[in-house]
Amino acid sequence: MRSHRRLRLLAPFLLAPLIAGCFSSGGGSGSGSGGGDGSRLRVALAFPPAENLSPYGADATLLSRLGVTEGLTSLDANGSAAPALAASWQRKNGTTWTFTLREAAFQDGTQVTADAVAGSLAHAVAAEPVPAALSGVSLTAKADGDRAVTVTTDEPDPVLPLRLSSPSLAILSAKAYKGGKADPVGTATGPFEITEVNGTTSAALDRFDDYWGGRAQASGIDARFIADGTARANALRTGELDIAEAVPVSQAASLDKATRRDTATTRTTSLLLNASTGPLKDAGLRATARAAVDTSVFAKDVYEGYGDAGAGIYGPAVTWAEGKREKPVGRAAAKKATGQTLTLATYDNRPELPEVAQVVKEQLEKAGFTVKLTVREYSRLESDALDGEFDAFVLARNTLLDTGDPVSILAGDYTCDGDFNIARLCDRDVDRAVAAAERVTDTDERRDAAMAAEARVLGSDAVVPLVHQRIITGVADGVRGVVLDPYERTLVGTGTRR
Length: 498
What we know:
- By secondary structure, the chain is of the alpha+beta class.
- The protein has twelve helices and 21 strands.
- It is globular, with a radius of gyration of 22 Å.
- The model is unreliable at 1-6, 10-21 and 28-35 (pLDDT under 50).
C-alpha cells in the first residue's frame, strides 16, 4: 500500500465554480449581470483555511465554493465533464488530448494563455504532496499555439477531462507561484477575487468585473469561518448572515422552513471493516458484522430525515447509478461472533458521526462482539486509520469529489495499492474488476463497469454503506441563486445575490 498521506476529509463540505444553472439554486436562480453594483454577500463556511489557501489540498474546495478558482473543465449535473476555461477538447490518441481555451483573464489583469495554463498544470504535477486528482497519474502539459494546450499522460487516461475539473487543479496566473507554493490571492479566474485574508477567521472578496462568464450580481463576499454549527445557525437566524453552509441536523429545526435547503449529495457515510488484520480479517466475521448493522435507523433517526438509507458506495445523488446497481458478489458465509474485541473509531469534525458510531457499537455488541469506541479530531486519526490501527471505522466520504470519476474512488479506497484504503482490502477479484473498469473509455460502459466493481467491493464486506448524506444550507430570506451542488464543490455563483 502506498505510504502517501493527505487530510482528504477536512475540506469544507464542499472544482471549479460551475455556471449556476448546472445545479439547483436556493431561492431562485440568475445569471451574471452587466449592470448594478449589488449587495455584498455574508457567507459562513464550516472549515477555516487549513493550508494557507493552497489549491493543492483541503483549501481547494473552499476556494471553489467561494467562486475564486476554476479549472479547465467542470462537472455538469449528470457528473459529466463540462466546459470551464477550456471551451472544448478532443482526444488525439490514447494518451494525448488537446484543450481549446476560451477568451478569459486572470484577476491580476493578465490573459489566460496556453503557456499560462501549461505552467499552472506543471506546478500542480510537481506539488508535494501530489493533489488527490493526480494520484497514480503522470501527465505533462504543453502549449499548442496561444489558444490550445496539449496534455499527455504516460498511460491512457479516458477520464482526463473529468480529472481536470478537480478543485486542486485550478488554473492560476504565473504570479501565483513563488518558492514552490501557489497563492490564489489575485491570481485566479473566478467571478470573485480575494482581497483580504484574516488568518483562519475571515476573508473579503470583491467581484472580478472581467470574469469571462459575466459580472457577478453581488459586489463581493464577506466570508467568515465558523467551525461551530450551532453558531452558524444562530448567526443566520439573527440576520448576521446571508448563507450558512453545512447546518448540522441538530440545528435544522431552529431555522424557519423557508431558510432551509437540503440537497442530496455524493457523500456516503460508511462502516469500513479492516480486512487485513485483527478479528475482521476473517471474511465470515465481516459478514456477521455487516448483517448486524441495521442501516435504516441512520437516515431516519441520526440524520432526522436529512439522509437516505445506505444502498451502495454511490447514493441517489449519483443519478446515473439508478437501476444499474448489481447484487454483491462473493460474500462469505457468516460466522458466529463469540466476544471478539473490535476497536471502532470515528471523528467529531462532522457532528453526526460520533452518534452514528455509537449506534453501530450497540448493534455490533448485540451481534456478539465486544466493541471499544474511539472518537478524535480527524487530523489526529487519519494516519492511524490508514495504518490499520482500528478494526472498524465510520467514515463520511464524498465519492466524486476528487475527480468526478466513479472508478477512481474504488481504485483509491478498495484496491491493494489504493492510497486511501482504510478498509485495508486486498482482494484479487476486486482488483481485477476495478482494473477492468479503469480501461473502459465509453462513459456509459465505464459506469456499468464501475457498478460491477462496486458489487465485488460490497461482496467483500469490507465496507457497509450506512447513509447517503443530505447537506443542509441555510439561506436568508431574499437571497437568490445559491448553488446547491450535489458534488459539494460550488456554493456562490454569478447569479447569487440579495
